[in-house]
Amino acid sequence: xxxxxxxxxxxxILTEIxxxxxxxxxxxxxxxxxxxxxxxxxxxxxxxxxxxxxQLAQAGLLERKRKAGSFVTRPHTSxxxxxxxxxxxxxxxxxxxxxxxxxxxxxxxxxxxxxxxxRMAKAGPIVHALxxxxxxxxxxxxxxxxxxxxxxxxxxxxMFTVHSPSSWMVNHVPWSSAEHRIRAEAASEETAGLLKIxxxxxxxxxxxxxxxxxxxxxxxxxxxxxxxxxxxAHFSPSSVGAG
Length: 243
Description:
Elements lengths: L2 H20 L12 H8 L3 H13 L3 E4 L3 E4 L4 E4 L6 H7 L4 E12 L2 H7 L6 E11 L2 E11 L16 H8 L4 E10 L2 H7 L6 E11 L2 E11 L3 E4 L11
Parallel strand pairs: 3-10
Antiparallel strand pairs: 1-2, 4-5, 5-6, 6-9, 7-8, 8-9
């Protein structure tokens, strides 16, 4: 085999394994075929296969364990604390295939609990949407959102069938101020069922409120499996001192 054909086969193997991982066909934790199995399957040298697997490991898609084999890594991402990201782009930024499922959408008058969550001064019409976001074949985030129709009247006719509530809000609704509350929480039975994790598993929960001037726009609770998401922030020293 000449050099050019060898390079072409290397690219073919690399592309096919990447597609198996990014499509979710080979989920996190999956043990991929051994070097010898891949060598036989592609009819190439073991050195070619080894170079491909080494490249995928360096890219963070595989974890190679001596004597045990190569395994698909669990995707992980981070976000700055004060960002309001589109969850679709977050998942794609992880190199994973994104999808979402709208679990429910209801339009109703706000309850006292809704008013407290959104910091509404008076009761009014709202939309309550519940959505599950997926990274490949694994649940990534539960989005539980309240939208104030006084601030976002277009949401009355938005069914979120094309775009998730997260994507629609980020790309259609401007905001002037936001508030975040971040905490760790053990998964309830309902949460565990949606995220496909064990009951009481650790979750990262972000509560976010946004306003347009004095008007509340939305309250959203985002619940992630703790091993899939982290938050970071960058600070510079102040003249007052550290605390």
